[in-house]
Automatic annotation (TrEMBL):
Keyword Transferase set for record: yes
Transmembrane portions of the chain: none
Gene Ontology CC entries for this record: cytosol
Name by which UniProt lists this protein: tRNA (Adenosine(37)-N6)-threonylcarbamoyltransferase complex dimerization subunit type 1 TsaB
GO biological process per UniProt: tRNA threonylcarbamoyladenosine modification
Listed GO MF terms: transferase activity
Keywords: Transferase
Organism from which the protein derives: Rhizosphaericola mali
Annotated NCBIfam families: T6A_YeaZ
Gcp-like domain segment(s): 33-149
Claim: Iron-sulfur is one of the keywords in the record: no
Length: 232
């Protein structure tokens, strides 16, 4: 029975959740991105107090490593590492885009038998987004990149099957694409529920990160012409 505290402040929604295995004990959320820095640490204390859980009772701390909001990533990472240091607990890092892909998969579960891919997007200002492509097993099929949106960028993938776009960056792409039968936009938002699901899987195989050397991964180099490249 793994008791995991999960933190996320990588996008416009910040959340702190407490889970025993995949059962939610409690979750606190903040929807004002400018307040994420002042939300995370008090929320950690509040959620444990409300649940009657002590810091030493935790089995691990999970946090999104990025990409996403610079400030949010730094605050959540610092809070997670602080608990790990103070209580000698393991740290689990979860990629934000993979958690978003999981949220899209859960939303689209009734049609999961289709040939499809998940393309989560995080708004990175102007026409820039953080993005990657995942298969139905949530395996990474492309590099994680920060790109400037182009209408033809996903043509090769749209020829292979249905591409499900999600996240707060996807709304910027929709007007750029011509009508595409294989392009679908999902109105779904991830939170620490998906972070916990991925963290529990990592906990089961002791896939922990070094607390001392763990840092947010900003993925901030921009590529304006490169096509999505396979990681294989």
């Amino acid at each position: 029975m793994s008791l995991i505290l999960s933190l996320d402040a990588s996008t416009d929604r910040a959340s702190v959740g407490l889970y025993r295995n995949n059962e939610k004990i409690d979750i606190l959320e903040n929807f004002e991105q400018r307040d994420h820095a002042s939300f995370i640490q008090p929320a950690v204390v509040e959620i444990l107090d409300k649940s009657g859980v002590l810091f030493q009772d935790l089995d691990a701390i999970a946090v999104t490593e990025g990409p996403g909001s610079y400030t949010g990533l730094r605050v959540a990472m610092a809070s997670a590492k602080g608990v790990c240091y103070a209580q000698n607990k393991p740290l689990i890092l979860v990629n934000t885009l993979q958690a978003m892909a999981l949220a899209a998969k859960e939303d689209y579960v009734s049609n999961i038998g289709d040939a499809l891919f998940f393309c989560p997007m995080i708004d990175a200002r102007r026409l820039d987004v953080f993005t990657a492509i995942y298969n139905q097993e949530l395996e990474l099929l492309t590099d994680i990149q920060a790109i400037t949106l182009e209408a033809t960028y996903w043509d090769n993938w749209l020829e292979k099957g249905k591409l499900l776009f999600s996240g707060n960056g996807a709304s910027k792409l929709k007007p750029l694409l011509n009508v595409q039968a294989n392009a679908q936009f999902l109105d779904v938002t991830m939170n620490v529920s998906q972070v916990n699901t991925l963290a529990q899987a990592k906990f089961a195989i002791s896939d922990f990160s070094d607390v001392a050397y763990s840092q947010p991964n900003y993925f901030k180099e921009f590529y304006t012409t490169a096509k999505p490249t396979s990681t294989n």
